[in-house]
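Quick one before lunch.
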Amino acid sequence: MKVDRLPKVRTSLSPTNHPYMTGAWTPLHEEVNAWDLEVLEGAIPEDLDGVYLRNTENPVHDPVGRYHPFDGDGMVHAIEFKGGEATYRNRFIRTRCFEAEQEAGEGLWGGLMDGPGTSKLPGFGAHGSLKDTASTDIVVHNGEAIATFYQCGEAYRLDPLTLENLGVASWAPLEGVSAHPKVDEATGELMFFNYSKAWPYMHYGVVDASGKRTVYQGVETPGPRLPHDMAFSSKYAILNDLPVFWDQDLVARNIHAVRLHKGLPSRFALVPREGGEPRWFEAEPTYVLHWLNAYEDGDEVVLDGYFQENPIPRPLETAPDGHNHLMAYLDEHSFRSKLHRWRFNLKTGETTEKHLDDRVLEFGMFNQKYAGKPYRYAYSTTSKPGWFLFNGFVKHDLETGESWEIKLPEGVYASEAPFAPKVGAVDEDDGYLVSFLIDENKGTSECAIVDAKSFQIVCRVALPHKLSSGTHSVWAGREMLKA
Ligand SMILES: [Fe+2]
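Model of the fe (ii) ion complex:
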């Protein structure tokens, strides 16, 4: 392996025993270009052609208040596959806030767990006072990688291969862009949403294949809400108003306390993709972090996602002192998120819904060539009880109900593993899942390639340094990248 190391960024992080700044969440501060990567097992498939992009959380300064792992500075890691070879690079996302803290040599903004008064400067996000780290999500649209912040930020553009910073997206509205904009690879459109404390509390937008915003409209909710993800079918964008949101009396005093509002249903807005009046459907109360796919089926619109049975968990008793609340809210086993299907009947206005599996699962992926269309295969992750750490994958055949599981060895943790179609794929599951593994036993990281059909790891490639965990990833095939 050959590695070029870039000049170091300015850091002022003190040693800590914080559970989400140690172990597999130890921040990485090194930026490199690496090539001639060592293949540890199998061979890199010749029909894997494109780039896997991973966003991770890497705080470079001591937290101003209490640290939450979603406050970490965003870093994008890219592994490009072509002709059976792989190259790797990683870069911090140089947001305005990252640059301001580099200049200051210290943290300037409080985090998710702090009151607005903690920040030394006005900030971003639905909160109004956070650092826009662009550290949550990443998608590829119009040949560019777009990194986004879950509390709504500016949307940062990067070259998906060189990771060069290309500045903020000109199409991003003043109200910001939430994590989880969705790209329809068939039309080249990007659909996005945002949410805030100001009427109409939520917006929906569309950006066309050339990067021009063509739709931007309010989707009114009865007050501030906390949607995290959206979905789309071929005709509708699906936004949500779930009964888990900030206590409205407290939010008026600038205190952001999330609670379950008993008696309120879950509400789903089916917005015509080209813009227009949403049609609302009601369903069982829950909170959903992530959706899988959605599609039309006769008079019904089908939506798959992960239904939380316990969206307001009790503090985690096994957590280290002082972190019981934080750790419960990062633990899928506390939320009990289950693979679930909603069916919205356009004729009757009724919703029917059911679990598709009783295991605790989340962070699902599927073949994006089937986005918005009927699909058969879903890939979910399993997590280590008590921790926001992925310890395996589950493949579902949604037609037969059959499933297959990969369990990683103890101390080995995966990153979100998008589906990468094979060049010349025929079947929906002709492809691979690509994931970065953190091996806590060896103190190293590698890239694992899973054959989606046989559901086995077929190749492992060494990476030049140990990564930190994070949240989201994306696969972009060669056709998604600009020539
Ligand atoms: Fe997310």
